Amino acid sequence: MLIWLVLILLGYNAQSQTVTDYVEEHTDHAQELMREYDVPASVILAVAIHESAAGKSKVARHLNNHFGIKGSNSNPTINSSYRDYESADESYDNFVEVLQNRSSFSKLFDECDQYDYAAWAKGIQRGGYASSRTWANQVIAIINKYELYQYDDRPDDYVEPMKVLTVSARKKHSHSYKNKNHHSSAKFYTIRKGDNLNKIAESHGTSSTALMRKNGLKRSALKPGQKIKL
Which pLDDT score is estimated for 192? Predict the structure, then answer.
């Protein structure tokens, strides 16, 4: 009876674990890997959350495999093509090893800003990590939803690299900001909740660096109600 109750409780805890719980449990190791190899902790955590359902997938629970990496395993309780690990930390270590050792990923260490989680996610997708065309966007969405970038040790004055938009996307962003800022003049923009310097710069055909210089800003952080020169 006691064993049955323990098993029920263990099963309940495994299923009820939230993403927040998962992040709290694995952030320290993700940051250790980040500081040693310059892969953003946000990317490591978000890929693990995406691939393991925040630790609730069968592969994560039975094989300690949090990144969907395939290989042989010796676990008799699950029939799977995914490899097994002694611990979740070992799975995290192997994920970074894969990025380092496969040519389709290793170039990212030279090409990507160590704080640019979007570039890393898109680069990992391009390297063939997942077949889904939306994989990188899903990983980026997880990072933004749970604010995982806060674990990337970004400098206070860090400015995200300017993203190149297509003509249609640029028009869409421009229209959106014009609608949100219809009370502002042509030369000034009034900051609204949810705005950031990169998007404002993109929608007005400039760069965040140029806006910071024009407005004498030392940091990219903005406050609602604040007006900036365009």
Answer: 85
pLDDT in tens, 125-145: 999 999 999 999 999 999 999
Of 127, 136, 123, 67, nearest to 103 (Cα)?
Answer: 127
Backbone φ, ψ for residue 229 (5° rounding): -80, 140
CATH of domain 2-151: 1.10.530.10
Query: What span, in angstroms and rounded, lies between the C-alpha atoms of 74 and 177?
Result: 55
- Architecture of the structural domain at 167-229: Roll (3.10)
Task: Note the helical H segments in 17-157.
Answer: 19-37, 41-52, 58-63, 88-101, 103-106, 108-111, 117-126, 135-145
Token look-up 């320290």 returns: 28
- Residue with the bigger pLDDT between 50 and 208: it is 50
